[in-house]
Amino acid sequence: MRKQHGDGGQVFRITGARTGLAEDVRGRQRRYVISMGIRTVAVILAATLWNVERPFAIVALVAGAILPYIAVVIANAGRERPPSLPSTFVTAPMRPVIGPPRGEDEQPPRDQG
């Protein structure tokens, strides 16, 4: 027995779904850990280069001081926005408005040009 498809029901595409909450949290945690790893490298680099290349050490130290703020802002950015509908969805065309019927004695409008 075969099911009939064409009942006119609404069809949902899985590509339009958000990622799961657990996957979203895992991704934000991953970005935070990567940012903190970069910060740790920057602070160690600043301590190592302090007596060798002081300008580079200061840049690394400033980066190590700013990165925690940036990492927290990125990690707390929230969930992704749901994607908009793909362009493959076509809306139904607008039906033209039909005016009331004209009487027999009325003439259709003439072209002025």
Strand elements, count: 0
Count up the helices. 2
- How widely separated are the two ends? 64 Å
Query: Unreliable runs, pLDDT <50, ≥5 residues?
Result: none
Report on this model:
It is a single chain. The chain has 113 residues and is mainly α. 45% of the residues lie in helices and 0% in strands. It contains two helices and no strands. Helix 1 packs antiparallel against helix 2. It is elongated. It starts with 20 loop residues before the first helix and ends in a 38-residue tail after the last helix. The mean pLDDT is 76.
Brief account:
This protein has 2 helices and no strands. The chain has helices at 21-49, 54-75.
Supply database-style keywords:
2 helices; 113 residues; elongated; mainly alpha
